[in-house]
Amino acid sequence: MGAVSDRHAAAAGHAAAADHAAAAAGHAAAADALRARIDPSTLRWTFSRASGPGGQNVNKTSTRVALLFDLDGCAALSDEERDRIRSRCRRRIGDGGVLRMISSRYRSQSANREDALNRFYELLAEALKPVPPRRPTKTPRRAKRRRLEDKTRRSTTKALRRRPGRDGGV
């Protein structure tokens, strides 16, 4: 029986890995579609000195990259898409409606620029994914029974702490 269940577990693991790979491929395709829709001239770049490893290079060159994207000024996105991005990326959007993506992971400006751009398109693709509708579920019978048993046990424990007599103790 163990070999059969191991085989089923392995098959389930492979199926999950295949689902994950398919989702990643779909995610990359969505990011590529956004790459084609959004005009690169709508992206602004700022550069500054990065902190962290890099030795003397860090003190001399501006390797930290900030990609700035004016969400309201982009004609490639519909109002519904803008609202969805605005609601899901609240923390990255400043007061002026500008989305900010920062990268200082690498020691070179070009690598950080590429990293920020890739992460930007992945973020937008993730934000534009439709939210699956919530399926209402019932609390399992076992969970209800366990909760009531815990309440009874707790009530008994507290009742034993009371003084016997008028106040309802044992």
Shape assignment: elongated
CATH class categorisation of the domain at 42-131: Alpha Beta
Cα gyration radius (Å): 27 Å
Low-confidence stretches: none
Mean pLDDT rating: 78
Q: Termini separation (Å)?
A: 52 Å
Q: At CATH's second level, what is the architecture of the domain at 42-131?
A: 2-Layer Sandwich
How many individual β-strands?
3
Describe the structure.
- The protein has 170 residues and is mainly alpha-helical.
- It has a domain at 42-131: Double Stranded RNA Binding Domain (2-Layer Sandwich), CATH 3.30.160.20.
- The chain has helices at residues 2-37, 56-60, 79-88, 109-128, 141-161; strands at residues 43-48, 64-70, 98-103.
- Helix 1 crosses helix 4.
- The model has no long low-confidence stretch (mean pLDDT 78).
Can I get a quick summary?
With about 170 residues, the chain is mainly alpha-helical.
What layout of secondary structure does this protein have?
Blueprint: H1 2-37, E1 43-48, H2 56-60, E2 64-70, H3 79-88, E3 98-103, H4 109-128, H5 141-161
Antiparallel strand pairs: 1-2, 2-3
